[in-house]
Amino acid sequence: METFESLVRAEFAPESTYLNTASNSLLPARTVTALHQAALLRAQGRPLTPLHENVEACRAGYARLAGVPATRVAAGASVAAHTAVIAASLPSGAEVLTAEDDFTSVLNPFHVRGDLKVRSVPLEGIAEAVRPGTALVAVSAAQSADGRIADLPALREAARAHGARTYVDFSQAAGWLPMDADAYDFSATVSFKWLLGPHGAAFLVVPEDFGGLTPVLAGWVAGERPWDSCYGPVAELAHSARRFDLTPALFTFAGLRRSLELIEELGVPAVHAHDVALADRFRAGLASLGHEPVPAPGSAIVSVPGLGDRQLALSRAGIEVSDRAGNLRASFHLYNTPDDVDRLLDALSG
Questions:
Q1: How do beta strands 301-304 and 117-121 pair?
Q2: How far is the C-alpha of 193 from the C-alpha of 144, rounded, in Å?
C-alpha cells in the first residue's frame, strides 16, 4: 500500500535543499515524463489530439480541487490576464479594494485602467474596509511576500453585506490550503507553484452566470465548437467558462495533468498538514535563534525580516530560498522533510 511518504519519494529526488516553492515548485517525475512524451509527439509529427485532451483533464482536475463544476473553470496562461478580464468588466469610477503590497498580477490591471478608484488597505483590515460603493474586493489568499493568510470568510461576509463582488488569487495557496472557490465570485491561480506544474497555465473560476464578464481576450478556443471557430469572428461563444479560455500551452497542460493527479492522490488535507508542520518547525527554530518571522500562523510560507541578504550564500551552500524586500522567505511543500528545515536553521545559526 502506497503511503504519503512512498508516493513523494517516488516522484522527487532534489539535488539541493529546495525551500522555494513560493517561487516555483519542483516537478514530479511523472510530470517530466509527460513533458518528454508531449515533445516527442511534435518531434515525430504525430497528431496532437491527446495534448488538447489534457487541457480538459486539467480543467476537471482543478475544478475538483477548487470545489466547483468544471463548467465554471477557464484555462488560461497567467493571473494577470485573468485579472485584466475582470478589470475590463468594471464601470468607470468603480471602487476596487485591495491589500497593500499584494502581488502585482492581482493589482496592476485595475490600476492601468486609469478610471477606476483603487483603494489599498492593510491585509488585516481588508474586511472592515469594505464599504457601500465598493464594487470589487481583490486579494491573494496567501501573500506572496510573507505568507500571511487573508481572513477570507470575513471578507466574503463583508462583501455580501455591501453588495461587492470578490476576487481571490489562490496562486500561493492552491495545492496546500483547502479552498472553496464557490464562496467567491471570481478566483484564479497559476500552475507552477503548489500545484507542481510547469509554467504557462492558469485557471479562472467564474460564476454560473459569468458575473458580468466579457470575454475580451477570446480567440478560437473560446468558441462553442473551437475547430469551427478558426476563421472570422467566433459565431457562438462557449456556453461554459471556456469562453474565457486562452490558447493553451499544450506541453504545459500535458505535464500539469500528471501534477494535479499527484495532488489528488495525496489529498490536500494531508499536504496541508505536512507543509504547515514543517513551517511551524522552522518558526520554532527561528525563535530559538532569536529571530522573529512575519506573523503568519497556519501558513506554509515563512518570511524573516533582515535575513534576505543571506540568500546568495545559502544558495551556494545548496539551500534554495528567496530574498523578498530584505526578508528571507522559505516555503515548504510535500517534498520537504524535517531534515531540510534543520539544515536551513543550522546554516542561519552560523
A1: unpaired
A2: 11
CB 236 within 8 A of CB 146: no
Element (H, E) at 152: helix 152-162
Q: Which residues contact 274 (CB under 8 A, 6 or more apart)?
A: 4, 334
CA separation for the pair 95, 128 (Å, rounded): 15
Q: Is 169 helix (H, G, I), strand (E, B) or coil?
A: strand
Please report the pLDDT score of residue 107 as a whole number: 97
d(CA 171, CA 251): 20
Residues (pLDDT < 70) of the chain are 1
Task: Tell me how far apart the alpha carbons of residues 84 and 78 are, in angstroms, rounded to a whole number.
Answer: 10
Could you tell me whether strands 301-304 and 327-331 are parallel, antiparallel, or unpaired per DSSP bridges?
A: antiparallel
- Residue 326 CA to residue 310 CA, distance in Å, equals 9
Q: How many CA atoms lie within 13 A of 331 on its CB side?
A: 25
For 206: left if phi > 0, alpha if psi spans -120 to 50, otherwise beta; the answer is beta
Task: Please tell me the distance from the alpha carbon of residue 33 to that of residue 13, in angstroms, as a whole number.
Answer: 14
Name the 3-class secondary structure at 87.
helix
From the CB of residue 266, how many other CB atoms can be counted at a distance below 10 Å? Answer: 19
